[in-house]
């Protein structure tokens, strides 16, 4: 197998691969590595999510790259990818598989932090728009299921837009079956299927009809064949597995506490009802 001397990434052919994928694309280390390694894939994904034509995306510049194969510590635990697009907007992309029940404030914190991009002496009007898009392996709002949702600031009565400079997107990887015609027109459902793919056969079917996904498949194969990168992906997988286990335990404990609270509330109502019955009996006995 040939090796690229500049990146130390093996250059193989995914078309010969079969069976389960070593590392799935919900792994945030592999997610960031793919988008950093292959600009064409990054551009294709951005155009789909932001509904842009290819010629409308003139430039992309990653602001927080990492060295492929290097380990990540606690300070790097959030493996987002921050991109300046067309020199006039900041886009943050983040994969999240564990529901820590804090995504709304977390995404809001990121989109607002990136909006604070003025240089000394610049006017507020010169602040670049900030967009945060989360790739979630869980449903954020159970009462409003959708594959892809976009949120902006609106006036609450007449629903007109306050500004388009802050935007949050959510791609729910568990709701691919809810893809709208608009989602399909921009191939968003195909990207979601790539991120959820479990076998090389799944990926080959997607790659056969989408050139950017074909490029992504090649890069995924190369990355996961590199031992250093694969070890970091596996380390992240182990961390995410433990994190998910702890979160599940916390959720179970919360459910038990909620159940206990419900039981206590029911018992309190029963006691109050019994007290009323006793009080009535006393009145009848005393003739009052």
Task: Tell me what the structure shows.
This protein is α/β, with parallel strands linked by helices and 288 residues long. It has one domain. It is built from eight helices and eight strands. A hairpin with a 4-residue loop joins strand 1 and strand 2. It is globular and about 95 Å long.
Task: Please give a handful of descriptors for the protein shown.
288 residues; 8 helices; globular; disordered N terminus
Largest sheet entry: 6 strands, mixed
Q: Strand order within the widest sheet?
A: 3-4-5-6-8-7
Q: How many E strands?
A: 8
Helicity range = 40-55%
Number of individual domains: 1
Order of helices and strands: EEHHEEEHEEEHHHHH
| End-to-end Cα distance | 98 Å
Mean pLDDT: 89
Radius of gyration: 25 Å
- Quaternary status: single chain
**Strand fraction:** 15-25%
- Looking at the structure, what is the overall shape? globular
The total of helices stands at 8
The parts where pLDDT drops under 50 for at least 5 residues are 1-10
Derived structural class: alpha/beta
How would the blueprint of this fold be written?
Layout: E1 2-4, E2 9-11, H1 28-37, H2 39-50, E3 60-62, E4 81-85, E5 89-96, H3 103-115, E6 130-136, E7 148-154, E8 161-172, H4 181-185, H5 188-196, H6 200-207, H7 211-225, H8 227-286
Helix pairs in contact: 1-7, 2-7, 6-7
């Amino acid at each position: 197998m040939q090796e690229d001397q500049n990146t130390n990434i093996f250059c193989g052919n995914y078309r010969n691969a079969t069976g389960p994928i070593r590392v799935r694309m919900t792994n945030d280390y592999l997610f960031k590595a793919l988008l950093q390694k292959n600009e064409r894939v990054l551009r294709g994904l951005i155009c789909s999510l932001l509904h842009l034509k290819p010629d409308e995306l003139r430039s992309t510049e990653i602001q927080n790259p990492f060295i492929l194969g290097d380990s990540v510590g606690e300070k790097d635990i959030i493996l987002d990818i921050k991109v300046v697009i067309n020199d006039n907007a900041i886009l943050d992309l983040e994969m999240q598989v564990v529901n820590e029940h804090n995504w709304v404030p977390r995404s809001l914190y990121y989109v607002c932090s990136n909006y604070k991009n003025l240089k000394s002496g610049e006017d507020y009007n010169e602040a670049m728009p900030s967009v945060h898009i989360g790739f979630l392996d869980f449903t954020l709002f159970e009462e409003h299921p959708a594959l892809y949702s976009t949120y902006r600031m609106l006036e609450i009565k007449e629903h007109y837009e306050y500004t388009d400079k802050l935007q949050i997107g959510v791609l729910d990887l568990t709701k691919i079956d809810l893809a709208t015609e608009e989602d399909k027109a921009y191939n968003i459902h195909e990207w979601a299927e790539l991120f959820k793919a479990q076998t090389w056969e799944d990926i080959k079917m997607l790659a056969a009809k989408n050139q950017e996904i074909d490029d992504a498949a090649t890069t995924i194969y190369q990355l996961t064949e590199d031992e250093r990168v694969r070890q970091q992906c596996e380390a992240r997988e182990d961390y995410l597995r433990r994190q998910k286990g702890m979160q599940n335990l916390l959720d179970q404990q919360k459910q038990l506490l909620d159940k206990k609270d419900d039981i206590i509330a029911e018992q309190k109502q029963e006691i109050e009802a019994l007290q009323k019955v006793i009080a009535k009996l006393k009145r009848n006995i005393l003739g009052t």
